[in-house]
Automatic annotation (TrEMBL):
Span list, region Disordered: 340-363
Domain HTH lacI-type: 6-60
Key words, A-Z: DNA-binding, Transcription, Transcription regulation
Organism: Deinococcus peraridilitoris (strain DSM 19664 / LMG 22246 / CIP 109416 / KR-200)
An example molecular function term from Gene Ontology annotations: transcription cis-regulatory region binding
Name of the protein this chain belongs to: Transcriptional regulator
Length: 363
């Protein structure tokens, strides 16, 4: 036979107090005498009393559930960010429901409305429409209808107008500037930009900084091939067919950079001996790559904490800043070779013919 669970009435009876007093203790009211509070809590422990969270949530019109909608949970970047979001939300007393859209805008719409119908208290929106250039009026109207029902915070993305209560973003433009300036400090004057998509805002931001710092780079040195491992492989293959090649490449993400490293080995290009490679995102694989990949960290833990904090504040009806920017951090590893000592010798800093894919290049 299963033992019957203790109730609030059992606690009140054994503690010698009213049910309303137990209720005030449960809800953290400060009006309860400290000694009385300690007695009630002691009885709760003795009876192994567990409050009915469903009833409490109904009373407070809360579910203590958050929705998180993202494009691709298999992406190391989104997986790492979601882990931080979920961990911190749990610390704040919330459970997170995940909606993985497989980069399908229609599925994103379905998840957003389904989560709202499931009575989540708020939604964290990553990627998708929040990271797409030229969001349609239909999308804005659709999301505006949602925010009238519950708050939405975008993470590393944004939407026009009052569609979201807060946009929490890592400073990707500054991260791109840090990594490009690092390449310049190491003597690289000929740098290519690999990967990304022209309709994705994070690509546009990084590309803008690249074009500002390397305005004379040949058009063939910009290869917007996508955001995957295959995109990195394809980008380097295309680059090596150009009349000249750079001494370094900056990749839109670490995943693209890993593809570049793979293709470099296939085509006999030594990294960093012949070509320096840098990534972006500082995913865990960056530390395990060979050579270990220089990258930019989003400061994931702080990014997640700020996003969850802003969403919970909005749920409580508090005012939240429309934009929150998280500083990024350059992480220097082994994939960049310094050419500073070679400057003035007419050697490594100059643009050259691509290496042949027929055999390995020497360091």
């Amino acid at each position: 036979m299963h033992k019957k669970a203790s109730t609030i009435y059992d606690v009140a009876r054994q503690a010698g107090v009213s049910v309303s007093t137990v209720s005030r203790v449960l809800n953290g009211r400060q009006s309860v005498d400290p000694g009385l509070r300690a007695r009630v809590q002691q009885v709760m422990q003795e009876l192994r009393f567990r409050p009915n969270r469903l009833a409490q949530n109904l009373y407070h019109h809360r579910s203590n559930l958050l929705g998180c909608v993202l494009p691709d949970i298999t992406s190391p970047y989104f997986a790492q960010l979601f882990l931080e979001l979920e961990t911190y939300a749990f610390e704040r007393g919330y459970t997170v429901f995940l909606g993985n859209t497989a980069s399908d805008i229609n599925l994103e719409r379905t998840y957003l409305h389904t989560l709202a119908e499931q009575q989540v208290d708020g939604i964290l929106l990553l990627g998708g429409r929040s990271n797409t250039c030229g969001v349609t009026q239909e999308d804005v109207t659709d999301l505006h209808e949602l925010i009238e029902r519950l708050p939405i915070v975008t993470v590393n993305g944004d939407l026009p107008g009052p569609v979201v209560v807060s946009s929490v973003r890592s400073d990707e433009a500054d991260g791109a500037r840090q990594i490009l300036m690092h390449l310049r400090s190491q003597g690289h004057r000929h740098v290519a930009f690999l990967g990304g998509l022209s309709e994705v805002t994070s690509t546009v931001e990084k590309l803008r900084v690249y074009q500002e710092l390397f305005p004379d780079a040949p058009a063939a040195w910009t290869q917007l091939t996508g955001l995957t491992l295959h995109a990195g492989k394809h980008a380097l293959s295309q680059l090596l067919e150009a009349p000249t090649r750079p001494s370094a490449v900056v990749c839109v993400s670490d995943l693209v950079a890993l593809g570049v490293l793979t293709q470099a080995r296939t085509q006999g290009v030594s990294v960093p001996g012949e070509l320096s490679v840098v990534g972006f995102d500082d995913i865990q694989l960056a530390e395990m790559a060979f050579p270990r990949l220089t990258s930019v960290s989003h400061n994931y833990a702080l990014l997640a904490r700020q996003a969850v904090d802003q969403l919970i504040a909005a749920i409580a009806g508090e005012a939240t800043p429309r934009h929150v920017t998280i500083p990024t951090k350059l992480v220097i590893r082994d994939s960049v070779r310094s050419l500073a000592a070679d400057q003035g010798k007419g050697g490594r800093g100059a643009a050259r013919r691509p290496v042949s894919s027929s055999g390995p290049a020497s360091d």
